[in-house]
Amino acid sequence: MRHDDDSNSPAYLSVRELRALLKGGELSAVELLESLICRIEELDGPINAVVVRDFERARTAARLADDMRRRGDDRPLLGIPMTVKESFNVAGLPTTWGFPAARDFVADDDAAAVERLKGAGAIIIGKTNIPVAISDWQSFNPIYGTTNNPWDLSRSPGGSSGGSAAALAAGFVPLELGSDLRGSLRVPAHYCGVYGHKPTHGIIPLRGHVPPGAEALPTTRDLAVAGPLARCAEDLGSALEVLAGPDDPEREGFSLNLPAARHKRLRDFRILVLKTHPLIATSTATVGALTRFVDQLMHAGVSVSDDHTLVPDLERTAVVYTKLFMSLIAAYWPAEVYDRIKTTIAAAPAHIDGARIRRGRAAVLSHRDWILADQVRASLRKSWHAVFRQFDVVLCPTMPTPALAHDHLPDQEERRISIDGVEMSYEDQDPWLSIASLSGLPSTVAPIGRSSSGLPIGVQIIGPYLGDRTTIAFADLIEREFGGFSPPRLGSRSTA
Questions:
Q1: What integer pLDDT is reported at residue 491 of this predicted model?
Q2: DSSP readout, 250-301?
Q3: Is 214 left (phi over 0), alpha (psi -120 to 50) or beta?
Q4: Which partner from 59, 101, 295, 461 sits 20 to 30 angstroms from 385, CA to CA?
Q5: How far apart are CA 356 and CA 362, in angstroms?
Q6: CA torsion, points 101, 95, 232, 395, in degrees to nearest 10?
Q7: Beta bridge pairs of residue 445
């Protein structure tokens, strides 16, 4: 999205560029904030990304940031405005998760990740939209309405961090905090043409990323992570340095000593490419963009392989992921919903094995069966260690298609998508996402192309356990070599 005065605006500058202007005195935190507030107020109406606005407190924080800088303070995010996903607690702001019953709930304390961002000097100016229960690849709910993709308002910006990615693409903020369980960071980054990083499981605390009113505890939830979104890979790295570290109040300020990136030069990377999945078709637009990108890498002298010999069984990966994912989210369902599913599954004949039944069985998995599934996960994770002894990163699609059209059918099992004219279940889109999620591996999504109708297409860059700096470094190198984010035009419409 471009605007008439973008050339004279900081709307699309990176955190690094904004820091340089702030440090050099060419721009004050107050001036930067007012510019972005003006942009949100003027342009967010049809997009509906920044649904909770905290502009007055942000103005106070900006004035304080300018005072701190004059006194010599140089925190890494000092004076940088940003938003956070609505599902994170921010003291004094509502946390609803889209539940109408929670409309009036206001958090007393910041989530751990928000504490760290504020401690680094970031100015939280508001919160961005989500789906109900942060459980959809679209972002709409009865409280805040629907968020639209800045590239095409008739399409989803992704979910559940959809408002986050839309705000970045629209030039409202340079940095965002999101979360990911089933692609909630990666899908919006892919749909909106921005960068997102799903970190290694457990390295960024999730304390305070809880349903409204739930106790904020220092626990590590299975499969779930928090992570940054940005418009360039370098900013992902800057945010990761602030966010990563153990959730221990006695050691606050202690950062996690992640391994350095494996390489500093693009041509030194060893790349494995996956283009097909046994459980899902992938659109010609998506595969074509990945193919063209791989050709660019090879032309640049990068070692690229499509030898899948070492790759763990992708079908088994997706099946085990579904078991663990469904059993996790079902633990938070109302008792009457869980009991109804349990009764339905108990009555289903053993030979019935449709997708809905499989997900239902996974939702009511016994503890014994969960342990067995977890053992399979451990074996698959061990296999990935072998892959990353031979390769540095694995490239694969994020989703089977570019941004999908809005579809608000209440039962997600009833929704359908089209992949090159072939209809399939909306709920079956996640096999590519399960690869990194099941084994807790880092995955950075970076924009690599567009569909014929101009919609962004991103690639997943999956790395070894604790290899977050490697995947982000690779994203940064390809951005420098081939280009990265480019702004959409407000109000454009796709025809496909």
A1: 52
A2: GGTT----PPPPS-SSGGG-EEEE---BTTB---HHHHHHHHHHHHHHHHTT
A3: beta
A4: 295
A5: 10
A6: -60
A7: 196, 460
**Token pair for 120:** 């680094």
Ordered domains of the chain (ranges, CATH): 6-266+466-475 (3.90.1300.10), 311-386 (no CATH)
Give the chain's length.
496
Residue 154 annotated as catalytic:
no
Active site residue 184: yes
Distance CA 442, CA 228 (A): 12
* Catalytic one of 160, 161, 164, 179: 160
Exactly one of 14, 28, 85, 161 is catalytic; name it: 85
Q: What does the alpha-carbon distance between residue 348 and residue 260 come to, in Å, rounded to a whole number?
A: 51
Known catalytic membership, residue 164 = no
Which of 161, 184, 439, 494 is an active site residue?
184
Q: Are 15 and 174 in contact (CB under 8 A)?
A: yes
CA 234/CA 200 separation, integer angstroms:
18
Q: Is residue 248 predicted with pLDDT exceeding 80?
A: no
Give residue 8's pLDDT band: very low, low, confident or very high (50, 70, 90): low
| Confidence check: pLDDT of 24 > 90 | yes
The kind and range of the H/E element at 34 are helix 29-43
pLDDT at 6 over 90: no
Q: Which residues contact 55 (CB under 8 A, 6 or more apart)?
A: 37, 125, 126
Residues 362, 354 contacting (CB under 8 angstroms): no
Residue 29: what residue type?
A
